């Protein structure tokens, strides 16, 4: 993973908030904001504005939202999403390898049986 710089991270903020980043982009973005307080602050600002606008559209029940906590929850959800995607990819590779091994074993078995009868 090559990592991204601040300029690249800034271009990903809106897509992060809309949850439209690919898994690789999401992971690089989260890694960057974890170590760059300036980019994290920018994300936080945009996130708060986005959430505040969302709240204006929803029913007012008098509760006060902790936007910082909402952002942290969103980041944790994104990290879980990345782990799940990576785990599913790993399992699919293992499954594919198992199918190939079983198929190859079957072919070897058939070849041995055919040559045994010849």
From TrEMBL:
Domain Putative zinc-finger: 6-39
Any single Pfam family the record assigns to this protein: zf-HC2
Segments passing through the bilayer: 87-112
Keywords: Membrane, Transmembrane, Transmembrane helix
Residue ranges that the Swiss-Prot or TrEMBL entry lists as coiled coil: none
Statement: the UniProt record of this protein carries the keyword Cytoplasm: no
Family: Belongs to the zinc-associated anti-sigma factor (ZAS) superfamily. Anti-sigma-W factor family.
Protein name per UniProt: Anti-sigma-W factor RsiW
Source organism (scientific name): Blautia obeum
């Amino acid at each position: 993973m090559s990592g991204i710089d601040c300029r690249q991270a800034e271009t990903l903020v809106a897509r992060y908030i809309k949850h439209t980043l690919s898994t690789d982009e999401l992971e690089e973005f989260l890694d960057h904001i974890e170590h760059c307080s300036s980019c994290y602050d920018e994300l936080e600002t945009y996130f708060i504005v986005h959430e505040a606008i969302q709240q204006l559209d929803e029913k007012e029940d008098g509760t006060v939202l902790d936007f910082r906590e909402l952002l942290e929850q969103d980041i944790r959800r994104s990290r879980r999403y990345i782990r799940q995607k990576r785990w599913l990819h790993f399992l699919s590779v293992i499954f594919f390898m198992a199918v190939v091994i079983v198929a190859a074993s079957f072919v070897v078995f058939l070849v041995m049986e055919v040559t045994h009868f010849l």
